[in-house]
Amino acid sequence: MQTNSTQYDVAVIGAGPAGSAAAYFLASGGLHVALLDKFDFPRDKTCGDGLTPRAIKLLDEMGVLPQVKRDAHHCSTITLRQSDNVTFQLELSSLNGLPHDILILPRYQLDDILRRHAVAAGADFMPKARVKSLMRTPEGIAHLQIEDDRTLDCKLVIIATGSNSNLLRELGLLKKKPPTQLAARTYFENVNGLDDTILLFFDGIELPGYGWVFPTGPGTANVGCGVFFDSPHPQPTQLRNLIQEHPYLRHILRNARQVGPIKGFPLRTDFSPAHSGNEWILVVGEAVGLVNPITGEGIDYALESAQLAARAILGEWHAGSFSMALQKRYRAALAKKYRYQLMLNQLAQQVYFRDGVLDNLLYRAQQKLQLRQAILDVCFGSVNPAVMFAPRILWDVFGP
User: Fold this and answer.
1) What's the rounded Cα separation, in Å, for the pair 239 and 324?
2) Angle, helices 107-120/17-28, rounded to nearest 10 degrees
């Protein structure tokens, strides 16, 4: 049994995109970082597998994009489908200031690439390290007890546990289990008609939500669906029904073979800066509720919030001070970047993702370039989401 604790500057709990990115940024800044995960890697993670232009931009800043691109499938357009008669494309080349493609890479590969990138920067990875307890000593040292009796001490902790809120509630950082939305996905091979286009479809889907076909390679795809409210209907069951009954899916999957089971996964869209931690803990990514309430996307937010946390830590560390000022700095950065944006995204979801309204939005967007551009920009965060409530957009959607 190990009795002496290993000493670190920062311990990062969770080695998904948020945790590995935080470990990378901190280790690159000269700190001694432990990166813990309850699993060994590579490991599977149920997800839609899409990397948005904002995520690609951060991966480029981290210096890991070339490796991701080698393994990923590149998509340059998005097809939105409401019916056989209402189907149109969004061109990613029209995004301002962001890369002009989406990369599809299963999390089994992506997460391990990011984890190895953090280790190459100097972080120590600890697999199969489920945290049994976490406390702070009177001397201000964070003490982590791992289930196999390993221990480590550090000055700061970053929690990057995704939608799993158990540790946050045990520490009193969340008062109750947060609401979660539901999604499900599976993989197929020998899919007909795939190219460099992502398909998002809304016919046959509970609203607010959508179904998707994300090409992962020649003839292979991630097929899934999600609803962004607390639906009583299990998403794996809905996806199974869609695969059997949806006319478009039946067409492209007629010669396909399903690879692996249908797996469901939760999503947290309950972002609040007040959930970002305390003076010795910072919470990043989906653990702080950073998921887009329109698209269900969270990897871009995970990478960005990890960078914000690392900047706050390195700023306070190098200034020679370490107190609640660190949390205030991080919380302010989160609020500035996300509070207004996600509030408006939530409002847009409530206004537009309703029966009848969404039909009209997509029908009008098929005819109007400026409306298609607004949808694209808001979904990928390249403009202020208030554009969806500008008079010209409201007229395009609700006018005669």
Assistant:
1) 46
2) 20
Whether the model clears a pTM of 0.85, i.e. scores above it, the answer is yes
Positive or negative torsion for Cα 277, 283, 289, 294 = positive
Residue 298: give its domain's CATH number: 3.50.50.60
Q: For the segment 143-188, what is each residue's pLDDT rounded down to a tens digit? A: 999 998 899 999 999 999 999 999 999 999 999 999 888 999 999 9
217, pLDDT greater than 90: yes
pLDDT in tens, 378-396: 999 888 899 999 999 999 9
* Residues 341, 355 within the same domain: no
Per-residue model confidence as pLDDT tens digits over 265-309: 999 999 999 999 999 999 999 999 999 999 999 999 999 999 999
Give the domain range for residue 369. Answer: 351-398
Residues 282 and 388 in one domain: no
- Report residue 304 as tokens: 């960005």
Amino acid at 376: L
Asked whether residue 187 is domain-assigned, the answer is: no
Nearest CA-CA partner of 156 in 315, 358, 304: 315
| 165 and 116, same domain (yes or no) | yes
